[in-house]
Amino acid sequence: MRDYVRTLAASAALLSASMALAQQEKPPASKYHQDGLVYAELSKAPQKARAKRNPLRGDPDAVAAGRNLFEQHCTECHGDLAGGGRKGPSLLVEQVQNSEPGTIFWILTNGVVWRGMPVWSKLPEPQRWQLVSYIKSLGVSEPVPSRGPSPKP
Amino acid sequence: MSVAVFRSALILFLAPLLFASLPGSSLAQENPYIIAYDHYLEEPGNLEIEYFSTFGTQRAGNDFHAFWMEFEYGATAWWTTEFYLDGQSTFGDSTVFSGFRLENRLRILKREHFINPVLYVEYENISGADKILKEVEGHDVQKDYADRNAALREEHNHELEFKLLLSGTHKGWNFTENTLAAKNLSNNPWEFGYAIGASRPLALKASAKRCSFCRQNFIAGAEMYGGLGDRHSFGLHDTSHYVAPVVAWNLPSDWTLRFSAGFGLNDNSHGLLLRWGVSREISGFGSMVKNLFGGHR
Questions:
Q1: CATH code for the domain in which residue A70 is found
Q2: How many independent structural domains does chain B possess?
Q3: Residue B254 has what pLDDT?
């Protein structure tokens, strides 16, 4: 029994360490709002992906369904109104809203794994397009973030 | 029942209730597999708490109910770590705590590909009475589980297990293949096993209304798993194999229910392994813990 307790304690310590690491890896919320580099991943979408058309464009239900999906899967990181949260950047900026639907679809499919955004290919393609429809329907409503880190005061 | 067993049972049954009461849950979109793994990891900072039951039939012995609690934490978007507590009741015998497991899954590739590899490393500290059958490896056969718990608990297994998970999703279908190699840290040979699975949501488009019974909330499929012998006798002889239809119901109220009926494919297999599980995802668990210890909001 003593062995169990020791190993359980070691396991708990490892779990705590992984949590601490997860916390350290995330940039603070302010960085997302001030650092335009966070949107650089959009420019990495290949031409073939960018050229994809949203097959649900014009579908009146797509935005409503996308909104439901956004509330279920995305608000935790990107905020209730997509204006950015503690873990994810705003989606209301020009860089996102002026991107082709195919680019946003590509980001959803591939995630930005090393920066903390998981892949969302577990959502079937039509659901990812519904999300794209919703995100694109939001429009630009925030100032364009500056390129590069903000100067120190 | 000893104090230790009573405490273990208390943890197993009260923990899900305690964690279910935590705020900040988010809807999971879980595949229905219970044995096979796909390449999707836990979202970073989220904790998923799962409880699973397995009712198994036993030839020349008493049937059993094995159960486990699983705590799955997304350390990063490419690393998920899990902790398991196992137990079992053998009918007409006793209820025992049968050990724990610590598991890590690491995503290798940065982007999504046709096939996505994930490395899996697990440490097990379990007794011979462990009957959750979370994986079948080597020459595991049903008669190994026929003894009484008192005799089975004499055996202790410290085991390292490695898996290569290969999984891809195409047109709504997920296909996955897991290859397993396990080494008991005593002087036993490497043992091998496999699991394969396929699943698909019943509808690919989401409904414009939030609903519990919409078809997109149900994901159905099948999985198959079994042993492949060991280093000295690799192959299918003296191994057990199972095939199981599986279904998951992802509820908008943040719960996921899974059900699976596994059928043994040869005389070395248990005739029936009836499994069900319930899970809930707690989003932002890492931040909650940080705040608890003085981190600022």
A1: 1.10.760.10
A2: 1
A3: 79
